[in-house]
Amino acid sequence: MIPYIERILQLLAALVAGSFIGVTREKIQKPAGLRTHSLICIGAAFLTQLSIHAFSGPNGGDPGRVAAQIVSGIGFLGAGTILKKGFSVKGLTTAATLWVTAAVGMGFGSADYVLATALTMFVLLIVLFLKRLDFLQARSKEKQLIIEAKNDLEILSGISEYLKEKNIVVHSIEIETDIDEATVYIEFPANQIGDIRAILSEFLKLPGIRSADIG
After folding, report:
1. CA pair distance 69, 95, nearest whole angstrom
2. pTM of the model
C-alpha cells in the first residue's frame, strides 16, 4: 500500500506543478491553459510511472520506451498550437511550455521531486518575468498588421493609401489571395503601434475590410 501512496503523491505533485504553469498561460488567454497543462503534466507523470514499474522486471523489458514516446507525443501536440501568418509565427512559446510541462511531469513520475520542483520554478520564472524583457526588446522590432479583405484591386490599393494618409510608415506588404478573399500582411515600425491601434476601429469601417488585427 505504501508504494501506491507515494505514486499518488507523485501524481498530485505533478498536478499542482502543471496547474501553476497552466494558470500563467490562462491569464493571458493562450489556447493551452490550466486544464491542458495540468492534464499533460499528470499524464506524463503517470506514463513515466508505468514505464518504471509496469514495463521492467526480472524477465527483461526496457523501462525507458514508454517515457521516450512522451517527448515525441507532446511534440505533435505542441505543433498543433503553432500558427504561421505572413512573416510572423505564433504559438511557439505555448508549444515549448507544453513540452517542458511534460518534462516536469516525468520528473515527478520518476520521484525526482527536487529537480522537478526546481524545473517548475524555472518555467514560472521564464513565463512570468522574462516576458517583460522580451517585451522591451520587441519594442525596437517591426510589428505586423493583418487585414482580411475582399479580393478587389481597388480595395487593396486603398489600404496603402489610407495608411499613407494616417502617416503610417509601411516597411513591406505581402498579399495572399483566394477566390474572393485576400489577406494583407503589413510590416510597420513598432513605435507606431499606438497609431495603428487608434485607427483600427475606423479602419474596419472601410468598404471591403472584414477584419484587422495586430500580429
Report:
1. 17
2. 0.59
Give the structural domain span for 86: 2-138
Q: What is the CATH number of the domain that holds 175?
A: 3.30.70.260
Structure-block grid coordinates of residue 143 = 510589428
Tens digit of each residue's pLDDT (9 = 90 or more) over 19-54: 999 888 877 667 678 898 899 999 999 988 888 877
Helix (H, G, I), strand (E, B), or coil: what is residue 209?
strand
Same domain? 149 vs 67: no
Contact of 196 with 172, CB cutoff 8 Å: no
In the structure grid, which three cell numbers stand for residue 100, read together?
517542458
Strand, coil or helix: 104: helix
Q: Which H/E stretch holds residue 149? A: strand 142-150
Domain boundary among the residues 122, 138, 154 is at 138
Helices (H) and strands (E) in the chain, counts: 8, 6
